[in-house]
Write a structure and sequence with these properties.
Strands 1, 2, 14, 15, 18 and 19 form a 6-stranded mixed beta sheet that branches. Strands 4, 5, 6, 7, 8 and 9 form a 6-stranded antiparallel beta sheet that branches. The chain contains 10 helices and 20 strands. The protein has 2 domains: about 100-190, PDZ domain (Pdz3 Domain, Roll); about 195-440, 2-enoyl-CoA Hydratase, Chain A, domain 1 (Alpha-Beta Complex). Helix 6 (about 215-230) packs parallel to helix 7 (about 250-260) and helix 7 (about 250-260) packs parallel to helix 8 (about 300-310). It has helices at about 30-55, 65-75, 90-100, 125-130, 150-160, 215-230, 250-260, 300-310, 415-420, 435-440; strands at about 5, 85, 100-105, 105-110, 115-120, 135-140, 145, 165-170, 180-185, 185-190, 195-200, 200-205, 235-240, 265-270, 275-280, 290-295, 315-320, 330-335, 340-350, 365. The chain is of the alpha+beta class.
Length: about 450
């Protein structure tokens, strides 16, 4: 999820003296504005009436703070799947998490049908080692039903003192009985960038765009140049598979690393005339060497910004399967109670003016990732995407071009490229079909018209 910290402070005033100021649009009459204001006051009074009735007559004395927090969260989550209210504790946890170190299990989650759904486990974390898979449903936490909890409440329960254990009850597609997994909480130190030399090619994997992503990428490039040798180094493979996103500024910095000029991304909010554009600075840190970018159904948000920018500028060839399709920007707005709201404030667009919201990015070369035999019946062939999330925003702007995507047999693929998007990434090279293809492509063992990318005349 893209997080962009804002200095804007919004005070929440609850009670009989609540004042709401409504601006009158130029085309509205004063009567229309007054009517709108009257309706707003009426609905706010209704909320106050219900709140007071619950406080007075509920069978047990309710917690006022919890009532208001639930009301705020209900209001925000009704907007789209990515807007929510964060309590002071949740806001503090989120701030620590974006800096790259926190305590917990190591899973990216969302809420679906009242239970927690796993987007993807993070590499080298307790959840990953315990065998948690993308699209698993977590229905119980230490025996307590998840249904009825908010996402933040469920996440708070999964976090805890380092070294303590928690039992997750998992429902997995095509597995008849629920699975119980006991996991020990650990400090999650998210080293977001990993790299390795494959002969004369540099392989760099970014697992998420936290505050360390760009610095880690710069260190990886420098280390690979020294290990391989600048004269011998022939190109780079940037692996963004199962990367759920992160901070907007980090995605811009990462894309800028490989570009010498041009727009990286633009964002547009409610006022379509107010467009923010972000451009690359002169200087490609990789000196224009050939590039392949790996994507799959778990590549979301900031990952799609980078992939879209490098593709639109014909800087890299995209290999793998269709990405997640999260093309919206969330702003974190601190509140006076030390909590915050996460609010969707804009859609983002690739340099060509394309919104990938609820669409995703199609690879230039579709390569199906083979699954191990023990996962073929358990792992969904189609990972949940933005378009599957209840209440998701629709895309706006230019439609993406219907460019043909080729397989490793150089045949056009239409149906499978749209539907096949698992977020599984093998840990061993011999099982990693997509990475093996990228290595062979860059070494010239396989030829494809999409590599290297050709700029349009």
């Amino acid at each position: 999820m893209i997080r962009k910290l804002s200095l804007l402070l919004i005070g929440a005033l609850m009670g009989a003296s609540l004042v709401v100021t409504l601006s009158v649009a130029p085309w509205q009459s004063t009567g229309t504005a007054n009517a709108a204001s009257s309706d707003t006051y009426r609905h706010l009074n209704l909320f106050g009436d219900v709140f007071e009735r619950v406080r007075r007559e509920y069978v047990e004395v309710p917690d006022d703070e919890k009532l208001i927090s639930s009301a705020l969260n209900g209001m925000l989550t009704s907007l789209d799947p990515h807007s929510s209210y964060m309590s002071p504790e949740s806001f503090e946890d989120m701030t620590v998490e974006t800096q790259g170190e926190f305590g917990g299990l190591g899973i990216q989650v969302t809420m679906e049908n009242g239970v927690v759904k796993v987007i993807s486990p993070m590499d080298d974390t307790p959840a990953h080692e315990a065998g948690i898979l993308a699209d698993d449903y977590i229905t119980r936490l230490d025996g307590q039903a998840v249904r009825g909890l908010t996402l933040n409440e469920a996440v708070d329960k999964m976090r805890g003192k380092v070294g303590t254990k928690i039992k997750l009850t998992i429902v997995r597609k095509n597995v008849e009985k629920p699975i119980e997994v006991e996991i020990t909480r650990q400090i999650i130190k998210l080293k977001s960038v990993k790299f390795k030399a494959y002969d004369d090619l540099g392989y760099i994997r970014i697992t998420q765009f936290n505050g360390q992503a760009f610095a880690g990428l710069a260190e990886a490039i420098e280390a690979l140049e020294k290990e391989i040798g600048e004269k011998k180094l022939k190109g780079y493979i940037l692996d963004l598979r199962s990367n759920p996103g992160g901070q907007l500024d980090q995605s811009i910095a990462v894309a800028d690393t490989f570009l010498d000029q041009g727009e990286i991304v633009s964002t547009r909010g409610r006022n379509k005339e107010e467009v923010k554009r972000y451009y690359s600075r002169a200087g490609d840190m990789t000196k224009g060497l050939p590039m392949v970018v790996l994507i799959n159904g778990g590549s979301a948000s900031a990952s799609e910004i980078v992939a879209g920018a490098l593709s639109d500028h014909h800087r890299a060839t995209l290999v793998g399967s269709k990405s997640f399709g999260k093309g919206s920007v969330q702003t974190i707005i601190p509140l006076s109670n030390d909590g915050a709201i996460r609010l969707t404030t804009a859609r983002y667009y690739t340099p060509s003016g394309t919104s990938i919201q609820a669409k995703g990015i199609l690879p230039d070369i579709f390569v199906k990732q083979e699954l191990p035999d023990d996962l073929k019946d358990k792992f969904p062939q189609q990972t949940t995407t933005e378009a599957n999330l209840k209440g998701h925003l629709e895309a706006e702007g230019m439609e993406p071009e219907d460019t043909p995507v080729t397989t490793d047999e150089n045949e056009e693929v239409k149906d499978v490229r749209e539907t096949y998007s698992p977020s599984y990434v093998p840990t061993e090279l011999e099982k990693d079909t997509q990475l093996q293809y990228a290595l062979k492509l860059m070494h010239g063992e396989i030829e494809n018209s999409a590599f290297p990318p050709k700029a349009e005349n």
